[in-house]
Amino acid sequence: MKTWDNKSCPSKAQIRPELFATSNRFKKKTAKTFMCNPADLCLCVTEAFKQGIIDTNTKILAIEKGPKAGDTHPKYGWVMTTYDAKKEKVRIIKSIYTKLKALGFAEENITIWDRELVRLTANEMRRLGFGSIDYAYLDTCSCLTPDFIKWYQRHMNKVINFKSTIAFTFLISRDVRAWKNYKLKDNDPIYIFCNPLQNFKRDMKKLDDANQVAKLIMDNTKFKTTVTYGRTYKEPGISQPMMTFKLNFGWKQKNFSGSKKTLNLGYN
Ligand SMILES: C[S@@+](CC[C@H](N)C(=O)[O-])C[C@H]1O[C@@H](n2cnc3c(N)ncnc32)[C@H](O)[C@@H]1O
Predict the structure, then answer these.
(1) Does the Cβ of 95 fall within 6 Å of ligand 1?
(2) Which are the contacts of 12, defined by CB distance < 8 A and separation ≥ 6?
C-alpha cells in the first residue's frame, strides 16, 4: 500500500496524459459516467478532467477497497494492523471526496464503492446509477486473475456500450497468471507495448505477456475491440512490471498510439 504521487510513480505520471489524450477518443464527447480507482490523490480523475474526457456533470464511480492488515503504512512504513488499515481506508475515502469536490464535483455526482471491485455486480451498478459506463480506467495495478476475468465477463460487459472506452493497468509479473496458457495465435495482432531493446530476452517476454493480457481481456469483451493505447512500465525501486492499455469498441477506430519505448523497465 502506498501513494501514487508523481514523485514515487514517474511512469504513471507520464502515462496519465497519454492515456487520456482526447485525440485518441472514440468520439469527441464528454463522458457522462466515469468509473475509476482514483486512490487518495485522484490524479487520474484530475488528468481526465484537465483533458476534457469528463466535466463536473460527469458521474464518478470511484472504487476503493482500502488496504488490509499486513500492508505497509504509506506514511510511516510500518506493517498495518486491522485497526491501522481501517483508519487508512477512512482517510483515503475522505480524501477522494475532498479532491473530487475541489475539482468541482457535487456530492451527488460522487459514488464510492468501498469494497472489492469484483464484488460490484452489474445490478448493483444499475442501482447506483451506473447502468451504462462511458469511460472506465480500472487502474487496480494487480494481477489479471480468473476472478477478475469472470467479473469482467459477467458484469462489466453488461454496463458497456459500443461507444465506451475502457483502460486497465495490470501487473505483468507474478505466479498467478490467468494468461499463462493463453497463447497468441499467428494471426493475432501484436502491439508494441514496449521496445524490447534493453534486455532482449526479458523484454521480449514482457512484450509477449502484455499482448497475452490484452488478448485475454479483448476476447472476453462483448464487442469487437481495438487497443488504442498501451505501454509497459516499471516504477523505480521495489515494484513489479506493469502494463496500462486502453480499448475502444466498434467501428471507425483510431489507430494504436501506444509506446514505442518501455518506461524504465530497468529493474533498478
Ligand atoms: C494504483 S492505485 C490508483 C492510482 C490512481 N488511479 C492514479 O492515477 O493515481 C489503485 C487503487 O485502487 C485500489 N484497488 C486496487 N485493486 C482494487 C480492487 N480489486 N477493488 C477495489 N479497490 C482496489 C487500491 O487500494 C488503490 O487505492
Answers:
(1) no
(2) 4, 6, 43, 233, 235
**Ligand 1 pocket residue status of 4, Cβ below 6 Å:** yes
Say how far apart CA 167 and CA 125 lie, in whole Å. 18
| Residue 43 in contact with ligand 1 by CB distance below 6 A | yes
Alpha carbon of 139 to ligand 1 centroid (Å):
6
Q: How far apart are CA 9 and CA 129, in angstroms?
A: 33
For 88-104, the pLDDT digits (tens) are 999 999 999 999 999 99
d(CA 222, ligand 1 centre) in Å: 25
Per-residue model confidence as pLDDT tens digits over 41-71: 999 999 999 999 999 999 999 999 999 999 9
Which residue among 12, 40, 112, 139 is best mutated to probe the pocket of ligand 1, counting the most ligand atoms within 8 A of its Cβ?
Answer: 139
Helices (H), the chain: 10-19, 43-50, 82-103, 122-127, 146-151, 157-159, 200-219
Beta partners for residue 248, in sequence order: 165, 226
Which helix (H) or strand (E) covers residue 244, if one does? strand 242-249
Nearest atom in ligand 1 to 141's CA: 1
Q: Is the pTM of this model over 0.85?
A: yes
pLDDT at 252: 56
Q: Is the CB of 168 under 6 A from ligand 1?
A: no
Q: Quick one: which of 6, 10, 2, 7 has its CA closest to 266?
A: 10
The yes/no answer on whether domain 10-249 falls in CATH 3.90.1150.10 is no
